[in-house]
């Protein structure tokens, strides 16, 4: 009875956290864009796109939990992708971009929620609530699809109209406006690709280690019962 109650309480808490993540995303993303001095620039940011993806994923997952259905393996893959994207958003903003501009009014709050709060909630969700599974290393290619597409579209647009969403994608000018050449942009892209691959590798490795540990523990308990 205690185990059943604990499992039910865990599911209810997971459901609540999913609602919170989805709700914060649904409120923060449009407010961050609408109150931007340049909404057309704000909407091009990877932070906005990745948070939209997270909001959609956790909204869908909320409805799946509400209907008491089992989450599909594809939804699990998307959640892992969301975790990787959010870790990149948090680390890139904190280490590279946080000193590049100041926010005022409501954007002080939305800047915090999009760059810090949602990423930490997504990480917390994975640590506590998500079932750890045996993923193939080929999943990394799937998780890379969105960042590669985002980078390619950003570069193509920049070649067309001269606008780049981030200085490190701009081959023109020098820091803090650009990185000086396409060779330097290529190095930046290689660096980000490496980071994504390493995060994906670590995520798969942690999933596998925890999965193996739980299976070994389950088999050991089964033998004791027998």
Automatic annotation (TrEMBL):
Superkingdom field: Bacteria
Secretion signal, residue range per the UniProt entry: none
InterPro entries: Pr6Pr-like
Record keyword Transmembrane present: yes
Entry annotated with the keyword Transmembrane helix: yes
Listed transmembrane segments: 15-35, 47-66, 78-96, 108-128, 140-160, 180-205
Keywords assigned by UniProt, alphabetized: Membrane, Transmembrane, Transmembrane helix
Protein name: Pr6Pr family membrane protein
